[in-house]
User: Fold this.
Amino acid sequence: MNLILLGAPGAGKGTQAEVICEKLKIPSISTGNIIREALKNGTELGLKAKSYMDSGALVPDEVVIAIIKERLAQEDCKNGFILDGFPRTVPQAEALDAMGIVIHKVLDIEVPDETIQKRLSGRRVCESCGASYHLDFKPSAKEGVCDKCAGKLVIRKDDQPETVRERLKTYHESTEPLCDYYKKTGKLVVINGQEEVAATSALVLKALEA
Ligand code: AP5
Assistant:
């Protein structure tokens, strides 16, 4: 199954992508994670993306479209994939269509902006493996230490309140129009993402069975 996860920053796309990945045994592809990895490794892509990402703006379409094209051509995507954070603009969705990629379902995880601020202020990520935690909703066993690799947990640079406001603005302007884009295809399923993680996961898995 080829899936897209839509939703505002902090709506829980990454969290739910992990659940689907586990259930369907298909890879989860996060453009945000790919760009952060490039940044960590100091590659040309990382350097190009840094200023956009740090300010809460979107990285230019042509850059992310090239990333996705290359990633989807890999062997592990043959039996399906989850796109987490792509497409984020109508031109990105059109580029995906132009690649001849068939999308079976688009899950839009809806969460109000006020809840987003709270979630992102409590998020901590592992600086080594990228695993994501939350101080209240998904704490690590030992404070400040990653359960998976014992790496140090840090605040993501773009999770500062000012940058979150900018990311939400960008989301409403550039990404929300994708809901209409996919509604027209009959593939959009809206998921209430306001409840606790397990409740949202139950809705997500039910939507995949329908
Ligand atoms: P990206 O990394 O994709 O960030 P994002 O979309 O802003 O998403 P997040 O990772 O912040 O949130 P999420 O929805 O995955 O939530 P999560 O599950 O972590 O992109 C970063 C940047 O890269 C962009 O700003 C842009 O610059 C660039 N970029 C990436 N893709 C691009 C593209 N296609 N085009 C252009 N630029 C692009 O949850 C958040 C927190 O809440 C966690 O702590 C979690 O534990 C907690 N939580 C989750 N669900 C719940 C729940 N139900 N209840 C309570 N807490 C919860």
About this structure: Residues 161-175 form the longest helix (15 residues). The chain is about 45% helix and 15% strand. The pocket of BIS(adenosine)-5'-pentaphosphate is lined by residues 7, 9-15, 30-32, 35, 52-53, 56-59, 64, 85-86, 88, 92, 119, 123, 132, 134, 137-138, 158, 167, 193, 196-197, 200 (CB under 6 Å).
